[in-house]
From TrEMBL:
Boundaries of every NADP-dependent oxidoreductase domain copy: 19-260
Residue numbers annotated as active site: 53
GO molecular function: oxidoreductase activity, acting on the CH-OH group of donors, NAD or NADP as acceptor
Organism lineage string: Bacteria, Bacillati, Bacillota, Bacilli, Bacillales
Domain of life: Bacteria
Family designation: Belongs to the aldo/keto reductase family.
Binding residue positions for substrate: 111
Species this protein is from: Paenibacillus durus (Paenibacillus azotofixans)
Annotated site (Lowers pKa of active site Tyr): 78
One Pfam family it belongs to: Aldo_ket_red
Cited InterPro entries: AKR, AKR5G, Aldo/ket_reductase_CS, NAD(P)_OxRdtase_dom_sf, NADP_OxRdtase_dom
Name of the molecule in the record: Glyoxal reductase
Keyword tags: NADP, Oxidoreductase
Length: 274
């Protein structure tokens, strides 16, 4: 993990960047375009969006304006809960692909395991994957039981599980389950939505000459977790990428691990109604 372009190999052989750029709650239009362009200029090559973010159009415009060759990029988007199902998922994918202006998507994710719907969505995902419209398929916000149901009913094991994960919600049991089944864990809200006023993180920041955010992102990478911080500020976007010139000592990794409180900022995947 020496540079921003370092990748992890998913179980189907596709290489995915370890550090990506998220655009959750980034407004479509100028804000998302400038943010994505800043990220690409800073060296990020993985961009994570979703149909429910309502900014796929702007992400696509920024990609085209950047001049970065398509084969160097890794673009993720997601199907929203109301569009899960077989035919509806296929149509949602086509709509997302057109908004992004791309011939294929690198990673397509089920946004939440909508009860009674996500299995049919996965059937559509397998079709898209077989036909080459997506290079990898996966899920978000899935506990072990959701993943087991998919694996028991379909032949394709999800390549990625994107979940809320940060020092206050370290998800160790889920990480172990995914590791045992070849599923790559990816963290959303890795920076605890800005709630970084935690003494241990500040102490480690002083030790390494880094910010608490940089400490957390490095913790992610050293645990083998793909992470996708977001920002609309060019300086912060660059700062979040400046994590490849140091390594956390084992005792410092354990100190951050000990912060876990199983504290969620987002909904529990077992109890949501949207």
């Amino acid at each position: 993990m020496n540079k921003i372009t370092d990748t992890v190999t998913l179980h189907n052989g596709v290489k995915m960047p370890r550090l990506g750029f998220g655009v959750y709650q980034v407004e479509d239009g100028r804000q998302v375009e400038q943010s994505v362009l800043s990220a690409l200029r800073a060296g990020y090559r993985s961009i994570d969006t979703a149909e429910a973010y309502f900014n796929e159009d702007g992400v696509g415009r920024a990609i085209r304006a950047s001049g970065v060759p398509r084969e160097e990029l890794f673009v993720t988007t997601k199907v929203w809960n109301t569009n899960q199902g077989y035919e509806t998922t296929l149509q949602a994918f086509e709509n997302s692909r057109k908004r992004l202006g791309l011939e294929y998507i690198d990673l397509y994710l089920i946004h939440w395991p909508a009860r009674g719907k996500y299995l049919e969505a996965w059937r559509a995902f397998e079709k898209l994957y077989r036909e080459g419209y997506v290079r990898a398929i996966g899920v978000c916000n899935c506990h072990e039981q959701h993943l087991n149901v998919i694996m028991q009913n379909y032949e394709t094991v999800p390549m990625v599980n994107q979940v809320e994960l940060h020092p206050l919600l370290s998800q160790e049991r889920l990480r172990a389950f995914c590791r045992d089944n070849g599923i790559q864990i990816e963290a959303w809200a890795p920076l605890i939505r800005g709630q970084l006023n935690i003494p241990v993180l500040w102490e480690l920041g002083r030790k390494y000459g880094k910010t608490p955010a940089q400490i957390v992102l490095r913790w992610d990478l050293q645990h083998g977790i793909i992470t996708i911080p977001k920002s609309v500020h060019d300086s912060r976007i660059r700062e979040n990428a400046d994590i490849f010139d140091f390594e956390l000592a084992e005792e410092d990794m354990r100190a951050i691990d000990a912060l876990n409180r199983n504290a969620r900022w987002g909904p529990d995947p077992d109890n949501f109604n949207f």
